[in-house]
Amino acid sequence: MSTPATQPIITPSAGETQRTVVRIGTRKSALALAQVDWVIASLQKLHPGVEFEVCPMLSTADKDKITALYKFGGKGLWTNELEAALVANELDIIVHCAKDMPTALPEGCTLACFTEREDPRDVVVVKKGLEDKYKTLADLPEGAVVGTSSVRRMAQIKRRYPKLQFRDMRGNIDTRVKKLDAEDSEYSVLILAAAGLHRTGKRGRISQYLERDTEGGSMLYAVGQGGLAIETRAGDTKMYELLRPFEDEKTMLAIEAERSIMRTLEGGCSIPIGVETKWQEGNKLRLTGCVVSIAGTEAADAESVEEIATREQAVAFGKKVAQMLVDNGAQPILDAINADREASRDKAEPWVPA
Ligand SMILES: NCc1[nH]cc(CCC(=O)O)c1CC(=O)O
């Protein structure tokens, strides 16, 4: 790491004031840095005496922009290098997009909290110059090109709008929006997470929010989308206590239920599982899930409502809905995706879905 190692905690000797420096690991993107700024501002309100040091690092996903995401198997692409630094005591905490967190954490790492969730929905961003012509996916003409490298987004949109075409679109938010807007770009629209655009001050580019009841069909979001998860070293009680008051319980319960679906179906962030969690009166959580084939031609859906008050209940609820998805036909769809990934493991060609 380029950042000089500081002692995380300096125990005060008699007469000295206690000084705590928290080294925060993060990716280097504008979104990741905006998230860390928000985390620091919030933690400073809770703990005015604590100092923070931002330690940005590149992840595997940042370094390899060519290999199709789903071929990696979606395990820890955004998190592995930061976690190695955490275990090596070069960092004290890591701020992750909850969406990028694998469902099982590596040895020595533990989840300290989920913070209040941003808008979890996906959105449509229209190419500059076309905004007056098209506002929604339904407005797009036959053959219009949608930019996304998420099989979940592609599969769900294909399911409802078979007339559209899809092209891979990678990079951080700024890069993607620039590629979209380039005069010679083939894209008409991009699909992005609302949270990323909200957090980086680009709300103005959103022309449609996609959701369950989007006209023409539903669009469910990725597990954890819009949430932040903060990871610490296992056994670091000081960091754990510092972060506990920052947890948003309703977010934690909803995201744990979503993650439990993912864990049960053994899917990484790059397989087409969509979810939606909505709190209803009386601490009832409505959990909806879908698994869609890459071609968008087959799908399994499931939904249930339960009163949820503890993490254990949330996890059990996610397992139940995962089982409902399997009962409704999810397994053959997942098997086909895994077989395709296995068959192309050694190839690193850019993946452009047909
Ligand atoms: N996989 C990349 C990633 N991880 C988190 C976000 C957005 C912010 C969030 O979901 O919290 C994005 C970009 C995107 O999907 O548009």
UniProtKB/TrEMBL annotation:
Q: Domain Porphobilinogen deaminase N-terminal, which positions?
A: 22-240
Q: Which UniProt keywords apply?
A: Heme biosynthesis, Porphyrin biosynthesis, Transferase
Q: Supply the source organism's classification.
A: Eukaryota, Fungi, Dikarya, Ascomycota, Pezizomycotina
Q: Which InterPro entries match?
A: HemC (IPR000860), Porphobilin_deaminase_cofac_BS (IPR022419), Porphobilin_deaminase_N (IPR022417), Porphobilinogen_deaminase_C (IPR022418), Porphobilinogen_deaminase_C_sf (IPR036803)
> Which CDD domains does the record cross-reference, listed alphabetically?
PBP2_HuPBGD_like
Q: Which GO terms describe its cellular component?
A: cytoplasm
Family indicated by similarity = Belongs to the HMBS family.
Leading EC class: transferase
**Which cofactors are required for activity?**
dipyrromethane
EC number(s) given by UniProt: 2.5.1.61
Q: What is this protein called?
A: Porphobilinogen deaminase
Question: Which HAMAP family does this one have?
Answer: Porphobil_deam
- State the reactions this protein catalyses: 4 porphobilinogen + H2O = hydroxymethylbilane + 4 NH4(+)
Q: Indicate yes or no for the key word Transmembrane helix.
A: no
Primary role: Tetrapolymerization of the monopyrrole PBG into the hydroxymethylbilane pre-uroporphyrinogen in several discrete steps.
Q: Which Pfam families match?
A: Porphobil_deam, Porphobil_deamC
